[in-house]
Amino acid sequence: MMQPAKGPQFPLRICCMLLLLLAAGPLVSPVGGQLEPIERAAAVNGEDIPLAEFEAALQQALHQVDTPHEDIPELKLQALKRDVLDNLIGRKLAYQECLRLGFKVDGEQIDKELERVAARFSSAAEQEDAFLRSGISPTRLRKLLHEDLAIRQLIEAQVAGLVAVDDWELRSFYDTHPNLFKVPALVKASHIFIAAGPDSTREERKAAVALTRGILKQLDQGVPFSEMAIDYSQCPSSENGGDLGYFEKEKMIKGFADAAFALNPGEISNIVRTSRGYHLILVEDRQAKRKLAFEDVREQLYQNLKFEKAAPEIKAYLKTLRDTADVKIFVAL
């Protein structure tokens, strides 16, 4: 069951920062003057970067650009493609060095990192939606985290471990960036969802309303909410009895959010209509907005500031790996 987000949403996590720093040098030119009919974007010391991996990483990068994809200028798109491939190459080089030096990552470390990833989302539904849109499968996520943890050890051993961060620097950052450590008000809720979207007919909407009313009547008679969600809800959360975990008001559709945040723990809403259909909401817990205590974020803040201070040295170290590598590019950029 998803717990409330405990981690602060301040500067990029170390693994994200490393990914950016891995762009340690310019790309070499594509092999030959034209594309080969291959399924790889590049090769690093004889190890391929699949074309599908490059395309997935490019789509993730495009999702973070405010401009609609079709409106991105061609030169900017080309630069983005180069940056994405450059990051993948740098990551591959760093991980190869991890293997050469014998850095190990065990399953428990990956599980802990998965918990940290989950804590960045307000609910299980939000996390599931984010990974569906990004195209990252659970297997792929574990592989990425394994590489991230190994690369983090490499950078810690070779560079970042030599950088010191004083207590006054941590406290100064905490005190001067208060908004980064605020946790908004949260509600923990479950719902039963009956679909009736914009394209549904009048008859379909009437049937959905009738079904939702019937479910509400059974809830009023004492049938457990989770049982009704499992039997009737048309949301993936039905597998968990309709549990959506904790979420912020702004993370949900307005009508749904307004209804959920108006309920007290233990209360069930009347029928709530949204653009997607009809909902019945059970609120299980509420948490007031708060600020994370300094001691609760101290360790993560220390790690982030240390890697931030070490950024020039990290980039220089990774460039030494790049300068001696055999890198071939197979896509036009």
Terminal CA distance reads: 44 Å
Give the spatial strand order of the biggest sheet.
5-4-7-6
Question: Spans with pLDDT under 50 lasting ≥5 residues?
Answer: 1-21
- The backbone outline, from C-alpha atoms, is globular
Briefly, what CATH class of the largest domain?
A: Mainly Alpha
User: CATH homologous superfamily name of the largest domain?
Assistant: Porin chaperone SurA, peptide-binding domain
Distinct helical segment count: 12
Structural class: alpha+beta
Describe the structure.
With about 325 residues, the protein is an alpha+beta fold. The chain has two domains: about 15-165 and about 310-330, Porin chaperone SurA, peptide-binding domain (Triger factor/SurA peptide-binding fold, Orthogonal Bundle), CATH 1.10.4030; about 185-290, Chitinase A, domain 3 (Roll). It contains twelve helices and nine strands. Helix 1 packs across helix 3 (about 75-100), helix 3 (about 75-100) crosses helix 6 (about 140-160) and helix 4 crosses helix 6 (about 140-160). The chain is globular and about 70 Å long. Residues about 1-20 have low confidence and may be disordered.
Short summary:
This protein is an alpha+beta fold. It is built from twelve helices and nine strands.
